[in-house]
Design a protein that fits this description.
Length: about 500
Amino acid sequence: MNFSSKLLENAVNEMSKLPGIGKRTALRLVLFLLNQPNSQTVQLSKSLIDLVDGIILCKNCHNISDLELCEICSNVKRNKSIVCVVEDIRDVMAIESTGQFNGVYHVLGGKISPIEGIGPNQLNISSLIEKLKSINYPGFSRDIISFGMVKDVEIVGKRVVLTLNISSQNQNKKQEVIDSIKAILGRDFSEVEIALSNDTKLTKTPLQPKEQALENVSNIIAIASGKGGVGKSTVAVNLACSLVKKGLKVGLLDLDIYGPSLPIALDLHEQPQMTKDKKLIPLEKFGMKVMSFGFISGNDTPVIWRGPLVSRMTEQFFKDVEWGDLDIMILDLPPGTGDIQLTLTQKLKMTGAVIVTTPQDMALADVRKGADMFRKVNTPVLGVIENMSGFSIEGVILDKNETTEIKINGKNVKINSSGEFNLVLDLFKKGGGESESKRLDVPLLGKIPVLEDVMIATDEGKPVAFQGFDSKSKKLFNNIAEQLLKQIKVKKD
């Protein structure tokens, strides 16, 4: 590219150094500025110089600010016990635009990337452990940082986990250090956990569920799966309906923030009302109380949230919803073992979890992870449900005689004296749910084949378990509900 002016060339070269701007775009921008009034170009230059010279980082969270404390940290209405750790200022702006987060931030200033040559020293991590320097080891003038006792710091939202290496066998001194850490970090974090390490052995107190926040709910049962697409939500809805049919007070909570299914499964698209004390009133359908994030956001709106916001929304579904008296609350969890599952096990004392899977090995591999997670956090697994357990083909031969026979996929199909036949095709495999129930030593609550009426009823928002006529699928869900009730306590009026 040839330039008629050296000044023009220099300006284009500097402009092209900006990300996403090539030489041609840079030339267009420079020529545009040349055609503007001098005052406008001067003002642009001044604003850039002021930005470089005057901008500072908040001394508390490292957010870009004009003052020592940014507007977020200095806001007295912010919940200082919730800290959201983000990569850079763009994440802060994205979260703030939602208007849903009321905590504070810690801006790392980038992400650790060995490929780009960025390590911990280039990020704002040191300030996270600066407060620990005020804690001296009992009997010494040196702090626990200089002693090298702090091996690792892990922050997830409002939760901080410290791994300490204390070689002393004096349990009193260890406890004194732990108490001091919790007292200091407890000012900024609502949950402080300490793991003790002797380099070769890590002993960490397992997470214990807190007291149940829902005093008027007798039982909380989570319907979980290791991966999506196994029919977990369909099972949750129909199980809840089966429990209602048995005369129980039932609540159904859809906790899949990213992909809520309840609005479709129940054909329910209203927005919940609020009480005078700002609590959401659950919607009612088929005799049960229901709540889903899809009722609030609109089921067509994509949710682009980071973990801390999801965890907070999960907590609000328990604290800020007027559930009333319930015998059983059914939780339709998102797939996997992420933020929502962790929040639940920390905040609620659940009656147990029901694992939904398909017979496939791929589904079972993820199911095992989910089931083992519940056991590690002391949540009983009540049983396994194998969904999509084959495809059932039923029919009647009207003109049956002694020589009539049916072959499907090379298999002979038995025909009874009335000409009726029934064949189950194993679409995925067979026996996966049964093997997992044996591994966990829990009941196999049911095997649900691929049934047309279940699929149609779900899409129409009319759960098959609540429909008046008796069907094979309705009986299956009813049987699962009966088995589940044998394992839990329900108060009788």
